[in-house]
Design a protein that fits this description.
This protein is an alpha+beta fold. Helix content is about 25%, strand content about 20%.
C-alpha cells in the first residue's frame, strides 16, 4: 500500500490519486488545501470547481460572472471510493 501527501496544489493531486487508486492507497495527508464545492467558499485561486478550465482560459477571473460550471460540483474530486 501507498501513502500520499501534499501541500496546496500538490495535495489536490494527492487527493485525486488517492480516490482513483483507493484499493492501493493506505492513507492521504493534505495541507493547505481541501475540498471545494461550486457556489460555496472557499474559492480556489484558479477558480477550479467554480468555472470550467476552458471558461477560465477564455475569461480569466471574470468566468464567475455568468458561466459557473454545472458539471463540476466538487473539486478536485468527490471522495467516494465505493
Amino acid at each position: 500500500k501507498v501513502y500520499f501527501q501534499g501541500f496546496s496544489q500538490n495535495s489536490m493531486f494527492a487527493a485525486y490519486a488517492s480516490v482513483c487508486f483507493a484499493d492501493r492507497v493506505a492513507g492521504l495527508w493534505q495541507g493547505g488545501s481541501g475540498l471545494t464545492k461550486t457556489f460555496h467558499r472557499p474559492i480556489t485561486p484558479g477558480l477550479q470547481g467554480q468555472c470550467s478550465a476552458s471558461d477560465y482560459a477564455t475569461s480569466g477571473s471574470q468566468c464567475c460572472n455568468g458561466t459557473f460550471c454545472t458539471d463540476c460540483t466538487w473539486w478536485p474530486i468527490y471522495p467516494r471510493t465505493c
